[in-house]
Amino acid sequence: MPLEVGGSTPKEALAYWKSRAPVTHAEYKALSDQARQRAFTVAGLARRDQVEAVHTALSKAIEKGETLAQFKKRLGPLLDQEGWTGRKAWRIENIYRTNMQSAYMAGRYAQMKATATRRPYWRYVAVKDARTRPSHRALDGKVYPHDHDFWSTWYPPNGFGCRCTVQTLSASQVKSRGLQVESRVPTMVEPVGPNGVKLPARPLRPDPGFHGNVGREWLSGLSPRELEGELKDLASVAICREGRGVFAEGDDCKPPLISLAKRHILPVRAADIMAKGLAPEKYVKAFLGEFGIADINGAAVHKLPGGLPVVIDKGLFIQKATGKWKADKSGRGPYVKLLARTIKSPYEIWMVPAKADGRVYTTLRLMRLFSWQGKLGGFAVFNLVGGRLWQGATTFTPKLGKAETALLEYLERQRRGTLIYREP
Known about the structure:
alpha+beta, 3-stranded antiparallel β-sheet, 30% helix, disordered N terminus
């Protein structure tokens, strides 16, 4: 990790840092565990303005890739005031290294999850010098699947000043390098010191306060929340680009869905439709599984066509005010896999100005049609409202019959605004 040299910083790392609000140590201790993931404090600083000064300096350091010396220069008066010089200079270095590493690794996690389909294996990498903790040295080189529970505990940083990182690997790289993919996490290790001498066996655990995954815990609060009220479109026509600077409107922009080629209608099997009346957690796990998320508390960054990232986690189906599940709202539970597949692989994406809760939002509307035994069976629509809210509709009936006309008419009304993507 580039902690001592300038350079570009992943935008996800800066987004992580800007999401953390400076609070005093007393305020921090009063927060819930979830709220602490959005907070920043410095032990020993009692005043908020002092904490804010450190937070601002770290923000600049992350944004500009500043060195420790540049970071110290920004905080010169505060360091003198608090006596964090001379023998106590380690304090400010500790703050710099730990928070820079946390921001970098949170941003790195988002990037790694976005490429987990192509590079599904992660390798723990320790620096391996005289400053490396024996437990971190013992983990160096270990490879686990990206969704293994190991990363829930051991995703770096795993202590103050930890310099460990994670490398992503494809299946072919694992094979060509002769690497072993681990399945279990040891509870005890016999670490080897920097001089090659074996040290006594000890429990394998991170330092106190670092038992978690800074990347996943940050993402867990960033998924869109379901819109409770009505979403009203403000666009009445369809517009699409036909060439450089040339636009078409209306029916010229949207070929009728009734004549849609079969390759654009995803087939549904019996196993894709879940039973009615299941526990909400089962529906949520099935939805997350479509994105390769095995743990119901896991999260991943999915990129829509065009590159817009969307955080996928269980929060999509939790009512913010009450904390209760909404996975089976309006009976959609059995069809959550179809909703997930619409997000993963939409046929069209429309950008629609829409109004909700008295505000106007830019809404991305993802649409997908599904077939059953060769005939049209249903559809799913996913509206991403302002990037922070969502609303969806899913209908699936194996034998539509006369209802097919009404279904297609409804979908045609959803095709408005500006077309920004259509499946080739």
